[in-house]
């Protein structure tokens, strides 16, 4: 009886030992195939800052100016443009200044070259170009009054002419004229100011306010359509 009881106890101890050993030992699948590492986190956004080389260019020194006085048959010409232009540099180059109340001008910091210098202004026609070089301190110029108002107007900026567009009255909208019935005065003004051709193109210069001679025999509306 005692031998039987001892055998049962021994069997229970062996069973418990075997169970503990199996719990601690790694499973065949775990030891044969190691677990894959967790995916790395995506890198954060990087700075887009770019290191630029040091600016080593120094402005040219020793640049000279052209200066003088502008007069006409009426005396000193105040508030007119004096233009100096040359094509002797790598690109076409021009500088423009305005005369003071005594007709004096000074065009500063000019690269060395031969310049054509002339006068332009309201009520004038362009004066003949005079040769000037940097260092000319007494290059006096003669302004030429326009012989007629039409001649003077040829030099006015395009916006001057475009501002002369005649806007139809409010009574011309709503199907009461050739303007499409759905077009309102506000729509019309929006197109005139910034949504039509003027949004991209300069209007009012010579080519948009005159008709070619080839269309002279056409009605103005038909000529514009052409």
Indicate the proportion of strand residues.
Answer: 15-25%
Low-confidence parts:
1-16, 18-31
User: End-to-end distance, in Å?
Assistant: 129 Å
**Number of helices in the DSSP assignment:** 7
Fraction in helix: 25-40%
Topology pattern, helix = H, strand = E = HHEEEEEEEEEEHHHHH
Write up what this structure looks like.
The chain has 226 residues and is of the alpha+beta class. Helix content is 26%, strand content 20%. It has helices at residues 2-24, 28-32, 149-153, 158-162, 185-195, 206-209, 220-225, and strands at residues 64-72, 75-76, 81-86, 93-98, 104-110, 115-120, 124-125, 130-132, 141-142, 144-145. The chain starts with a helix and ends with a helix.
């Amino acid at each position: 009886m005692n031998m039987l009881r001892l055998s049962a106890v021994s069997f229970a101890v062996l069973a418990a030992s075997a169970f503990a050993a199996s719990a601690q030992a790694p499973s065949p699948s775990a030891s044969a195939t190691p677990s894959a590492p967790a995916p790395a986190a995506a890198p954060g956004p990087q700075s887009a800052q770019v290191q630029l080389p040091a600016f080593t260019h120094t402005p040219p020194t020793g640049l000279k100016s052209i200066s003088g006085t502008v007069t006409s048959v009426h005396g000193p010409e105040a508030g007119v443009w004096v233009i100096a232009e040359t094509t002797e540099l790598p690109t076409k180059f021009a500088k423009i200044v305005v005369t003071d109340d005594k007709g004096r001008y000074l065009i500063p910091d000019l690269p060395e070259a031969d310049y054509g210098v002339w006068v332009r202004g309201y009520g004038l026609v362009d004066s003949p170009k005079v040769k000037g070089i940097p260092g000319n301190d007494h290059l006096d110029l003669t302004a030429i009054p326009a012989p007629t108002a039409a001649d003077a107007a040829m030099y006015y900026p395009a916006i001057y002419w475009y501002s002369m567009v005649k806007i139809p009255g409010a009574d011309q909208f709503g199907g009461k004229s050739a303007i499409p019935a759905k077009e309102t005065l506000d729509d019309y003004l929006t197109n005139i100011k910034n949504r039509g051709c003027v949004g991209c193109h300069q209007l009012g210069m010579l080519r948009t306010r005159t008709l070619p001679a080839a269309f002279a025999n056409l009605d103005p509306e038909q000529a514009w359509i052409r």
